[in-house]
Specification:
Elements: E1 4-7, H1 11-23, E2 30-33, H2 36-46, E3 57-60, H3 69-77, E4 86-91, H4 96-104, E5 109-112, H5 117-133
Parallel strand pairs: 1-2, 1-3, 3-4, 4-5
Helix pairs in contact: 1-5, 2-3
Bound molecules: magnesium ion.
Magnesium ion binds at residues 9-10, 61, 63-64.
Length: 139
Amino acid sequence: MVNILLVEDDEVDVMNVKRAFKKNNVTNPLFVCNNGLEALQFLRGDRETGASEMPKIILLDLNMPKMGGIEFLREIRKDDKLKNISVFVMTTSNEDKDKVDAYNLNVAGYILKPLSMERFIEAVSTLNNYWKLCEFPDK
Ligand SMILES: [Mg+2]
């Protein structure tokens, strides 16, 4: 089962993701970083013991302090060890520029954060079905 990294600065959104994982019985190990910089440090070796498996999937917020989602994507896409990670943007930004930038950086999907918890749980269920269907390399 692949590790999932959530990069999100909003504590309520972090809680919502955890809740939606629980509701959908998503049992993938979930790690949380609060901004792009923290996530880069985590991916580049600051991973805690026992969590040393590289995440294959990232759920990425865009608007975050220190380093936002697009800048983070630029960094990982030019890093040979990180460039193949599947990234799903989950954001409140409906800006076309953000969508264009994100897809130019090869995101697997761009999802607007649903307003209701019910819709949020549905969205996570769909994502879970999608990544359960996908095969990922071991390394
Ligand atoms: Mg945010």
